[in-house]
Amino acid sequence: MNPSKEIVPIPLVIIGAGAAGMAAAIFAAGTDASPRPILLLDGAKKPGVKILVSGGGRCNVTNKTVTAKDFNASSSAVVKRVLKAFDNRRTIAWMEEMGVSLKLEETGKYFPVTDKARTVLAALQRRIEELGVELRSATRVGRIIPDGELFRVELSGGENLLARRVIVATGGLALPKSGSDGAGLQWMRELGLKVNPVTPALAPLIFGEGDPVGDALRGLSGLTTEVRLTLHTPGGARLTESVGSALFTHFGMSGPAAMDLSRHFSQWVVANGGQRPVVRLALPGFRLPEDANGWLVEQAGKFPKRLVATILEEVAPARLAAVLGEGMGRIGDLRREERLELARRMTGLPIPVVGDRGYPFAETTAGGVDLSEVDPVTMEVRRVPGLHLCGEILDVDGRIGGFNFQWAWASGYLAGRGAG
Questions:
Q1: pTM (two decimals)
Q2: Which of 100, 171, 305, 416 has its CA 20 to 30 A from that of 277?
């Protein structure tokens, strides 16, 4: 198809006005050879929903220390290169330039001093307006079709646009109410790109019904404590672990430790035909059963008449201690086999995780377009010149702590500069 003479090609169309898309628009407009005009499209009536709900409504912009090890990706080398191009220090300076002062908390997380995510969103939108970028909300894109040296962007309302370059920042599938419906991933599949299996990531875990351990742990609803969660194959081989705060709930477990583990659980299920891995809960102060057993022997010598649950309160909240010590009386009366069983509970209690709460409750998406498909300097798709990708649509997901926003800013920076 030859482009109609009546349709004037737009130098740059950016699809998706989330964190990555807005960053791309700002940095594309800020280049010396800036293409004019820049059109930024978003399907939601009010773009930026993910920014507003992130970090409990405060928006965890970045972290004190950001490395490629904080991410799961199809290429750690590409992640490292992208982060080097626009690191956390540049993010902090950039936010300050836009009038967003940040504060560093003890956890290593950076938040706006206002403690309001709207401060970040308003600054991004204000900068976009200052640079003359046209933002069209409530505008859904149906397809992107390469058309010679141009791209035909078909809008759901029937309108067609022609673009010289396109940046796709449509995200994945997490938080559908923000407009994330996986459309961008489907466009990439249609273009022949390698798209790795996608699952929710940073999502709360769900316990199965009718399991005594699960029922007992659901009874701890509202309790927050430090834990170590480990993931194992059904045969017992250890896959990974997550250490941090966990919140017990009426459906299972939430909090950083559980949510960081969720992507590994779900990705393993997909890769293994629906078979589930095993999740074990441990007290963070003990790594091996031998360590816990040694401590229990010591406690039995000192306080033989104390109840096991009371002894465990030294290393766990009382309610969790009661679950771990269920069915056991005084510590001095335990037989060796019982004490070893208790030690195993303390360092690896199997918990009946059956899945996560899905995309509506996930903070990001695991999987996506394989990083081998893009040039890490410009984020341009190697086999489709003029098409650039950034943000969550790529196979990169970070742990909790501002890492996914740092990826959005960094990849958006490179995509914007590359397209500009």
A1: 0.94
A2: 171
